Amino acid sequence: MQETPEHMELRRTVANIITNDINPFVDEWEEAEIMPLHEICKKMGQAGILGISKPAEFGGMDLDYSYEVAFAEEMGHAKAQGVSTAIGVQTNMATPALATHGSDELRQEFLAPAIAGEMIGCIGVTEQGSGSDVSSVRSFARKDGDDYVISGDKLFITNSIQGDWLCMLCNTSEDNGPHGNKTLIIVPLNSKGITKQKLKKLGLMCSDTGHLHFDEVRVPQRYRIGEEGMGFTYQMEQFQEERLYAVARTVTFLEDALEETIDYARQRLAFGRPILDNQVMHYKMAEMQSQLESIRALLYRATDRYVAGDNVTKLASMCKYLVGVAATEMPPQLLQYWGGQGYMAENRISRVFRDMKLVSIGGGANEVMLQIVAKEMGILPRRNR
Question: What domains are there in the chain, each with its CATH number?
Fold first, then answer.
């Protein structure tokens, strides 16, 4: 991935917002278990960074995806990854299909305000028993006149408590098989028949996560994204951007945690010398840095291929798997070097430990990533549904 002066300028813009408008307040937001998402998105929208790769006619910058990766890397410097998760939903999870396949009318009504930071979007895929197996979602939208009438549930939905609209994957037919009967529909979250329940989590405390129940929720059929029955395909496309974003911000977040641990290990004395002087420790730090640089190199390769228009399912899945492993293994090792201090809630390394666990689960679990890679290699056994 070639870094240009424009990439650097974008990085400075994002870094300025994180330094001045996010990091000074994350402890307060974590304690409250919610952040002022509309206020944050409004600031970012005014800076023009919520629609980096989105069409200019709807307020975007119309840049290639390498700029989204630079943005994501800078978002990883947020000291609570609930922030980068919520913003990533807005920029790389709820809006790509809308931007690519939505009608002009739909994009003007929902995409343009999201890019401006005036509306908060969220993505509705996961259901009870339908997380890794997206084809098994059960929510259904039946036609009634010019409307869809939607019933079902969506679970673990980031931004859903404060959100304004949901990009919802649901069945619109009982025919065409599990990959051809699904549609993406924009559902305003103030619609009659929606109930919300805020969920408590292990980490990412400052981002709101909810369970949504839909009881005969009526939305116009014009809120459909693209063609009916193409929802599964559109969602698979969205997953690629979601995973590349997740990899980029996670590498930065882990690298910051590594650097903080190295600084602490230089100062912490045990048996008369800094603990960093122990071979087992500085070798482990070197190993971790090598691991992160390897993931970054693969991320940049995947980004280059994505910008070139290639299918990056295999590379993106590899990246996501490798960063999921790093996010699982590195935080407990780093926390160990902090000793009792690392176990204290006020120490950021304990937040790293909590926040990073989701990386190996959300956006495609590690096991699912390996399944996808095996399928792309042609070695995944066939199965009957």
Answer: 5-120 (1.10.540.10), 122-229 (2.40.110.10), 233-377 (1.20.140.10)
